[in-house]
Amino acid sequence: MNNRASALVFSFLVVTVLSILGSAVVMRSASEKKISQGYADSAQAFWIAEAGLAQAYYNWSNGISQPQGAVSYGGGTYSIDASSLVQTRVTGVFGASSRILQGSFVFIPRPFDNTLSAGGNLRLSGLLARVEIYDKTRISGTYSRSFGASGWFEDKQENVDQNLTTIKIPDYSGNGVSDEFSDFVLFGRNAAQSYPEDQVVYIQTDNTVNIFPNQDLVGKKIIYVEGTQAGAGDVNIFFDTTWHAGEDLTVISTGDITYVEPLQFQADARLSTISWVDYNEASVFRSEHESIIYTHDDANFVDILDWGSTTGSVIANDEVSLNEVLTYEKYYYSDRIANGDLSPGFKWLSTTNNGTRKMMDWQEIRD
Questions:
Q1: What is the distance of C-alpha 277 from the center of its chain?
Q2: Taking the alpha carbons of 119, 121, 122, 125 in that order, is the dihedral positive or negative?
Q3: How would you write the pLDDT of the chain (367 residues) with one tens digit per residue?
Q4: What is the DSSP letter of 140?
Q5: How many C-beta neighbours within 10 Å does residue 88 have?
Q6: How far apart, in whole angstroms, are the C-alpha atoms of residue 91 and residue 77?
Q7: Which of 271, 326, 280 is nearest to 301 (CA)?
Q8: Residue 248's beta-bridge partner residues?
Q9: Is-contact 149 325, C-beta < 8 A?
Q10: CA 150, CA 324: separation in Å to the nearest integer?
Q11: CB of 168 within 8 A of CB of 353?
Q12: Rounded to 5, what percent of the chain is helix, strand, coil?
């Protein structure tokens, strides 16, 4: 009798253990299936978002209005938010999963096709000086030179439309009027906010800021100096051979930018500038650099005993002055610009004027 009772108790224990183990296996299997299904749904949502971003770019490129609300695709849906001047967001949904992709859709304005663009006149003056400008030079005014300087242009056109030589600031303030100082201030903030904080230096001051190459600037993309009024917040840049190779930095100022280059020569480095007022550059001896230079006003270059070169693009909404003394200066166009590889922050300028439509970049947004 006791043996039978013991056997019965043992049987109950075995059944209980097996039931628990079975339940655990079933629960684990269900959990793994749920995880697997969630992963599959998330991947499908990403693919749907990719398709939606491609469709959004196609619509924008062909002047087609973006759809309102959700669009059915691949067993799920995508929706397009094109309310920003530059950035378009697409949300892909499949099952309980959603993924968000963001692309920068911009016009590359015509001046980015040129080595040198002047919304006004181009003046060359100097003593025993020669300047050569390769690829396109476009001038809305006229070209003049002094007796002591000579200029050679591979492709120069004068009296051209300002849409080919200038870039207006988009209406970031939303007041219906573009190209105002308030628009430029918001442009600078948008440019700065589009990069991680550790890649940005944001300075609010009406004083002059001096920038020297140092270890703290390595990896930075934007330095934005913002004054309280137009012409405040000037920047002086002193860069020489100590600037690191491979860097790509843009300095933005609501005032003047003065770029001093004593014996500058870097490999595969780019330092670009955007200024509301004038751009001034002074170089001595051999100075070579790659830049995209944009000024809402005048661009003034002073070279002394310099046999250097500038690679990239110079865009001045007003006049350009080249002042040369005992120099042989060359300006080259950059293939990086031709391929749509603009300097940091410049895509926020690339929303106006007729030009080439391009998706500059895209990324996934994780909330």
A1: 21
A2: negative
A3: 555 555 555 555 555 555 555 555 545 554 555 556 677 889 999 999 999 999 998 998 888 899 999 999 999 999 999 887 678 999 999 998 999 999 888 777 889 999 999 999 999 999 999 999 999 999 999 999 998 999 999 999 999 999 899 999 989 998 999 999 999 999 999 999 999 999 999 999 999 999 987 888 889 999 999 999 999 999 999 876 556 778 899 999 999 999 987 555 565 788 899 999 999 998 877 677 888 999 999 999 998 888 888 899 999 999 999 999 989 999 999 878 777 788 999 988 876 556 677 777 788 888 6
A4: S
A5: 23
A6: 8
A7: 280
A8: 270
A9: no
A10: 10
A11: yes
A12: 25, 45, 30
How many C-alpha atoms does 79 have within 13 Å on its Cβ side? 9
Pick the closest to residue 158 from 178, 169, 142 (CA basis): 142
Q: Which residues pair with 262 in a beta bridge?
A: 284
Distance, CA of 80 to CA of 52 (rounded, Å):
7
Strand 265-275 with 279-284, pairing: unpaired
Q: Select from 131, 133, 137 the least CA-distant residue to 157.
A: 137
Spatial separation of the C-alpha atoms in residues 188 and 345, rounded to whole Å? 8
- Structure token pair of residue 260: 């001093």
What's the CA gap between 99 and 118, in Å, rounded?
44
Show the DSSP H helices in 156-200 as ranges: 181-193
Amino acid at 19: S
Name the 3-class secondary structure at 195: coil
b/e 272-287 (16+ beta carbons within 10 angstroms → b): bbbbbbbbbbbbbeeb
Q: What is the C-alpha separation between 331 and 310, in angstroms, rounded? A: 5
Collapsed DSSP state (helix, strand, coil) of residue 106 = strand
SS3 of 70, please?
coil
Rounded distance, CA 223 to CA 317, Å? 22
Give the residues across from 143 on adjacent strands: 122
